[in-house]
Design brief:
Elements lengths: L7 E4 L6 E2 L9 E2 L3 H10 L3 E7 L2 H10 L10 E3 L3 H12 L6 E5 L2 H10 L4 E4 L3 H4 L12 H4 L1 H17 L4 H6 L3 E7 L5 H10 L12 H9 L3 E10 L2 E14 L2 E9 L8 H16 L2 E7 L5 H9 L2 E7 L2 E6 L11 E5 L8
Length: about 350
């Protein structure tokens, strides 16, 4: 019950996705229930990939014939150990291995993955029929962002290819993306996605605390709190909801109880822009801007983000640090980013 929900499923091919062995010239047919399960995972926002000992070109061609190629991100079709392929997929997707599932018909391959990356959950190909109802593969809610998750990751792959081939400084590349960053109070319709984002985001989360839908709904209505969400779009399409801020407002001070950003936008500079907006509004409202930070095994980047944004440590109680922002020298927003903010906290909004 304490396991994290599965975020990515990695499939073997021979005798797993299809019956038969590709390179032995067998007549290949999809195994019963595989197409339905792949489509169900995709609908739930679970990403999928391939780790197969095969020749890449004919395997990809076979996936295309079955109409499945588009479902698999960063497929690893080679002769490397399956564990290395799984780790490579996790690195490229920037998703923790403890949210991965690996499906293979061979006990040897499952054991090799389990030994080398014990955080990965492994399943026999004969388990396919029961995985449809397995709670580890069942998100609490399925949001519109979840349904579009694969497409958003595929757009990210195009962005990455452009970035890799771009000659020039990073800011110049970011300017080519035509990014628009939107920021404002969460609506009731946003709450399912906010809950999902809070539950899924581990690295860029300032406290690691998980809030339920009911808690978020109550905080959104609380006169002492403000729940804010951020969206990002660029020329390739939407990134979806990518940021959440929970502010507690007291007389003379605002405290950031939670700040998180999707890992997919880590390199876009929007985390700093969001904090700049908060600093501006706090200064306009004549209040101090404080922030809670609680270290986890994965979120040190958020502490560094606060420090670069002019926050200094004030105190620490029971593992939670209290920081305060310098509101004297607030930087300009990045020139490559169009910002649409519908929240004027400093004016009472």
């Amino acid at each position: 019950m304490s396991q994290k929900k599965i975020k990515c499923v990695v499939w073997d091919l021979d005798h797993t996705v299809w019956s038969g062995i590709l390179l032995e010239g067998d007549t290949l047919v999809l195994r019963p229930g595989v197409r339905e399960l792949i489509e169900a995972f995709d609908e739930r926002g679970i990403l999928q990939s391939v780790a197969s000992r095969n020749e890449s070109a004919p395997a990809r061609e076979q996936l295309k014939k079955f109409g499945l190629e588009q479902y698999f991100l960063h497929p690893q079709i080679n002769w490397d150990p399956k564990s290395e392929s799984v780790k490579r997929i996790a690195e490229r997707l920037n998703i923790g291995l403890d949210t991965f599932a690996f499906i293979d018909d061979q006990a040897f391959e499952r054991d090799e993955v389990r030994f080398s990356v014990p955080a990965v959950r492994t399943y026999d190909a004969t388990d396919v029929e029961r995985l449809q109802a397995d709670l580890d593969f069942m998100p609490r809610v399925i949001t519109e962002d979840a349904r579009c998750r694969r497409a958003m990751y595929q757009a990210d792959m195009v962005r990455h290819e452009e970035e890799t081939s771009f000659k020039g400084p990073n800011d110049a590349f970011l300017a080519t993306l035509d990014m628009t960053f939107s920021f404002g109070p969460a609506t009731a319709a946003d709450l399912l996605r906010v809950e999902e984002l809070v539950a899924r985001t581990n690295q860029l989360n300032t406290t690691g605390r998980i809030y339920s839908y009911e808690e978020l709904a109550a905080l959104r209505e609380s006169p002492d709190h403000v729940l804010l969400v951020a969206d990002l779009t660029d020329k390739h399409g939407p990134y979806g909801k990518i940021g959440v801020v929970l502010l507690q407002r007291t007389e003379g001070a605002w405290t950031i109880k939670l700040l998180l950003m999707s890992c997919r936008v880590m390199s876009r500079g929007v985390g700093g822009a969001l904090i700049t907006l908060l600093r501006r509004e706090a200064k306009a409202g004549g209040v101090r801007l404080l922030a809670d930070f609680r270290a986890t095994d994965r979120n040190r980047m958020m502490y560094i983000t606060y420090k670069f944004a002019g926050f200094s440590d004030l105190s620490e109680i029971d593992g939670t640090s209290l920081l305060e922002a310098d509101l004297n020298e607030i930087p300009e927003l990045p020139a490559y980013l169009v910002v649409n903010s519908t929240w004027q906290g400093g004016s009472g909004g």
